[in-house]
Structure formats: structure tokens, C-alpha cells
Specification:
The chain is of the alpha+beta class. It has one domain: Nuclear Transport Factor 2, Chain: A. About 40% of the residues lie in helices and about 30% in strands. The chain contains 5 helices and 6 strands, in the order H-H-H-E-E-H-E-E-E-E-H. It has a 6-stranded mixed sheet with strand order 2-1-6-5-4-3. A hairpin with a 3-residue loop joins strand 4 and strand 5. It comes from Gracilimonas halophila.
């Protein structure tokens, strides 16, 4: 009886070892790059629906360059709609460099990118994407204008002057 029990136990272990293991394919920066590139292209082409379809939800965040520009997408949509409708081009941000990082489970991606823009000059974007089922969606985006340290004192003074005007 012990022999049969031992034989069954060993058989179970061997069968378990032969079962195919679920392998997780590591996420590819190419997938995230494709989403972000298409998102920027949608703005350049004035494609409102395609642009906003790249966000995870209406609760996602877009932060612009002005200190007052922190929007949930449900607020950002009506603010930005005229930019998409007026000229057929909302804005043109051309990535010149991007670095993508992933969470251990591969379902969250962080990125930072350098942008060439006709109206803002050299700019930066950073953000977070989440993988919902089989697609990446933007949960948070932050657009900034890097200020060289050599002029930061002047810029800070200009900001303070501007803020004092509104008081």
C-alpha cells in the first residue's frame, strides 16, 4: 500500500513538472512608443477622438506648462476642443528622445521624453501608462519647458512679477 501511495505521489510530481508553465512576455518599449507617437500624431492631425482615446479614462490627468493647467481629461476635452477644430492641428510635439520604464508586473509604464515644439521650443513630457487588457492607455501626462540654470533667477523673478499682478 505504501508503495502504491509513493508511486502515485511521484507520478503526480512528474506530471506537474511536465505541465506547461504560463510564461509572461516582458513588455516592449515599442508598444508604449507606438501609443505615444500616435497620440502626438493625432494632435498634429487635429484628430480629437483619436487623441483622447489614448487616455485611460476621463479621470486621467494632463498637466500643461502653466501652473493653472492641471486637468482631468473630462475638463481638458472641452478646453482643448477649439484647438482641434480651428486649424485641424491642435499642437505639434515631435519626440526627439524617449526612455520607457516598466513595473515588475509589466502593467505600468513610466516614460520621459524630449520634445521639439514650434510654439514652446524644446520641451519635455513625462507620464504613466497602464496596460488595460491588451492595450496601453495614458493615465497621467506632464508637459514642461526646461529652464536653463543660467537664466532660472530671471525666470523666477518674472514668475513672481506675473503672480503679483493677479493679486
Amino acid at each position: 500500500m505504501r508503495f502504491i501511495f509513493l508511486l502515485l505521489s511521484i507520478s503526480g510530481l512528474l506530471l506537474g513538472a511536465c505541465e506547461p508553465k504560463e510564461t509572461q512576455i516582458p513588455p516592449s518599449p515599442d508598444e508604449v512608443n507606438a501609443v505615444l507617437d500616435d497620440w502626438h500624431l493625432a494632435a498634429a492631425e487635429g484628430d480629437f477622438e483619436r487623441y483622447f482615446d489614448h487616455f485611460e479614462s476621463d479621470s486621467s490627468i494632463f498637466m500643461g506648462t502653466d501652473a493653472t493647467e492641471r486637468w482631468t481629461i473630462d475638463v481638458f476635452k472641452p478646453w482643448s476642443k477649439p484647438y482641434f477644430e480651428d486649424d485641424g492641428v491642435a499642437w505639434t510635439f515631435t519626440p526627439t528622445f524617449r526612455k520607457v520604464y516598466f513595473s515588475d508586473n509589466g502593467k505600468i509604464a513610466w516614460f520621459d521624453e524630449e520634445l521639439d515644439t514650434p510654439n514652446l521650443g524644446p520641451s519635455r513630457g513625462s507620464g504613466v501608462l497602464v496596460k488595460n487588457e491588451n492595450e496601453w492607455k495614458i493615465a497621467h501626462y506632464n508637459l514642461t519647458i526646461p529652464i536653463p540654470n543660467s537664466i532660472v533667477d530671471d525666470v523666477v523673478q518674472q514668475i513672481e512679477t506675473e503672480l503679483n499682478k493677479s493679486e
